[in-house]
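Check out a protein:
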Amino acid sequence: MKTVRFVDGTEIPALGQGTWHMGERGADRRREAEALRLGLDLGMTLIDTAEMYGEGGAEAVVAEAIAGRPRDEVFLVSKVYPHNATRRGTAAACERSLKRLRVETIDLYLLHWRGAAPLAETVEAFEALRRAGKIRRWGVSNLDVEDLEELGAAQFLLRMADLAFRGAHVLRFLFLLSQRGRGDAEDDGQPQTGDER
């Protein structure tokens, strides 16, 4: 099967299983989960779902389909509704998706389409979820060229803020090194470098 390689080296199948319209009728859930399991058995290990599909019902079907299977055998993609794509809303939506999917981490979490929330805010929320281990990577779906250009600018600003934060820690480290042995560096209760204590 043809694969796609992410920047981090992860390879995923180029073709996956979609779950749109799954989980909408309780009577069909067992059959839908069986269909997903068959696809997994045949090597279609990428499953795409979203909180929108069946208002979370599709994610519950996916949970049933992957139950008992080693987690690393399935690549899960889910999507956040645009109206939930604020800082707090994205985190809450992700928690609900994780609960419905019965997993600890989503492999790829996408903004389903552009809404009113600023993209920079959504990117911040995605990055916080990634750092917390709730998602492994994030992306977007159904965006036009202007939105993608704005997204690139948002990512750039977030990276600059992260570098500035790290830079502050580097400056503190250098300051502490410069004070080493002078006796005028205060002990602020923070971990020290080397043997300043």
In short: The radius of gyration is 22 Å. The beta strands are 3-5, 11-13, 17-18, 46-48, 75-80, 106-111, 135-140.
